[in-house]
TrEMBL record:
Domain of life: Eukaryota
Protein name stated in the entry: Ceramide kinase-like
SUPFAM superfamilies reported in the protein's UniProt record: NAD kinase/diacylglycerol kinase-like (SSF111331)
GO molecular function, one term: lipid kinase activity
Entry-linked PROSITE patterns: DAGK (PS50146)
A cellular-component GO term for this protein: membrane
GO biological process, one term: photoreceptor cell development
Species name: Gasterosteus aculeatus aculeatus (three-spined stickleback)
Secretion signal span: none
Acidic residues composition bias: residue spans: 1-12, 38-52
Segments for region (Disordered): 1-52
Domain DAGKc: 173-318
Amino acid sequence: MSQPEEEFEEEQKDSLKTKKKKKEKRSARKKKKKEEEEKREEEQVEEEGEEEEEHSDCVVLRGIFKLGKKSHDVLLTQTRLTWIPIIPETPTGEACALQPGVLLLRDVFAVKVKRRRAVGQESGGPVLGVALFCCRRRGKRLEEESLHLHNASAEHTQTWYNTLKELLTGSSSRPKYLKVFINPRSHKKEAVHIYREHVAPLFRMADVRTDITVTERKGHALSVMKECKLDEYDGVVCVGGDGSVAEVCHALVLRAQLDANSPEKPVKAVLPLGIIPAGSTDVVSCSVHGVRDPVTAALHIVLGHLLQVDMCSFSSLGQLVCFGFSAMFGFGGRSLARAEKKRWMPSARRREYAVVKTLARLRPDDCLLSFLPAKQSNRDQDQDPESEGEETWTTNQGLYLSISIMSIPCLSQHAPQGLAPNTSLANGSAALIAVGNTSRSEFIKHLKRYNSSSGQFSFSFVETHTVSAVRICPRSLIGCSEEESEEEAESKTTPIIQLEGAAFPWNIDGELVEIANEVLIRVHPQLITLYGEEVDEAESTGSCSCI
Ligand SMILES: Nc1ncnc2c1ncn2[C@@H]1O[C@H](COP(=O)(O)OP(=O)(O)OP(=O)(O)O)[C@@H](O)[C@H]1O
């Protein structure tokens, strides 16, 4: 065979090979596609099976209503309302593209009879049908929505109204009577307005009665809570910032402890607490709602979404200071103390001023820091870490710029993943974040990373631990003399602080608490119930402008 012929034959062989390969590839692709289709069909069958199972939830009522302008076949079961459009036969046989719909009763918080009324008419009027008020989810936000079922028959409408009402009141976690505390001084003094505008109408609609106290001073909510008849209420609501929330949470747990006559051991709060955010940061509200939004918060309350949440007790020299969710010692305590001295400034400016000033005078504290690592068993159940026998404390002595203890993730719009992303609401432990001595620029880098999603702990001077207890014993007031006197020099009206016996500023849930001695913090698993849901991240509104 001549060479060109050989080459041709080789070429032919090659092209045959590639054709074969292509064919193989094609058939493999076809096979894969067929398998995928079969899988999809199987999944669809499974889904349909599940749907059928759910729909086998037997029909309680069935009737015809108009939704919009079209008639629908409406089915009510114990858990859902389903509507299917009734398509009239047309001479042309044209299909109408109307969609069926479904509404889960767990999302419905009110049902009303609709009537036609003239302007100013308060009662009576011909029946139009029933209206259902429900919540719709938009990301982390819950929004109010209504569904109108029209049928002019009074008897038909009444039967549906009664049955729906009965099904809705069957849910035991939904409150009927609430004790409400409103702090009129919170943040921009908008708490009363927020409650009246966004919350009260939803409570009224859901037939939730309320007993309102507008607080007159710090400690007012605590004194009311100590005295009031708790068994009358199904829950407590706090409208305010983190300081107000901390006071009401503390009051609920303290009251449970007093009622149970248990001076040593904290007792789980009897009533759940709903938080309507009206502060500037609203860390606790963000941690259980994912947003700072009064409507979302109110809808979680009326729908009875309950969450068990861990709390800490803070004590010094054997005396209880308070119950709370988070505490900051060092930088966090100092900047709050500085901000409190400038109460006359608007809150955002005050905070910025305090952060910048405290950064400018950054000083470490010489501390003895001890902690009790959390055991796995603490996190799984409602178990008191104190009851676990031998306690093996780890103790370090050193210079710290900041020490934080947080039993909840502390989400906020400035730190969407939370100040303590490694802890959760009810894992029976707290996050200990200890920031050792470093340069100002490195410390600022660490702080800035809270705004982004991660990396705030990947510095050699930051250590984190999962703990069930922490003890902090400040050993001296390093650098305070110079710092405080500079501060005082600015405000000539306030007396110079006497350093002897001076207390250390702590930021406990956004409130300034001054403690002179060692502080013991213990985590108490699921000590309180809050209205809300488990969220992994808060809605962010951009970074904090001060750093
Ligand atoms: N009528 C009142 N006047 C002054 N203080 C009050 C009053 N009612 C309650 N307080 C106290 O005000 C403190 C701060 O409340 P809160 O956290 O709601 O507001 P805030 O400090 O302005 O908010 P934020 O901390 O989010 O900026 C709480 O300790 C609370 O007990």
